[in-house]
Design a protein that fits this description.
mainly alpha, Arc Repressor Mutant, subunit A, 2 domains, three-stranded antiparallel beta sheet, 5 helices, 3 strands
Length: 118
């Protein structure tokens, strides 16, 4: 495999995939896609304790997926790039298609078994 591709894939895994590896972080990204927010607003909307939201935001910030703007004592968070939501939506679409395909296969298998029993 091409060395440049391998390096890019390693960077992708280390910088982006790790950050996407938690449901709460995905929820935070989707919330921030609707509009930038303060930590307390995210915690309330997502029903997640504020220290937990802050910990997840630090990971997202360290991976450059969100940026933080200090406003007095509060910190305001926003997505750095809307394409992360497009990528997540694409992955969700793939997941839905696979689940639908598996459900159809299971239905056909059940029908086959029924016909064989008759």
């Amino acid at each position: 495999m091409e060395e440049k591709l391998v390096q890019e894939l390693e960077l992708l895994h280390n910088r982006v995939c790790h950050a996407l590896g938690d449901t709460k972080r995905l929820m935070i990204l989707y919330a921030l896609a609707r509009q930038p927010r303060y930590v307390s607003e995210l915690a309330e909307e997502l029903n997640i304790p504020q220290p937990t939201v802050s910990r997840h935001l630090k990971i997202l910030r360290d991976r450059c997926l969100v940026n933080a703007t200090r406003e007095g004592a509060a910190v305001y968070y926003a997505l750095t790039d809307e394409r992360i939501i497009q990528a997540l939506d694409l992955l969700r679409g793939i997941l839905r298609d696979r689940i639908t395909e598996q459900a159809q296969l299971a239905t056909f298998s059940a029908l086959d078994a029924e016909l064989e029993d008759k």
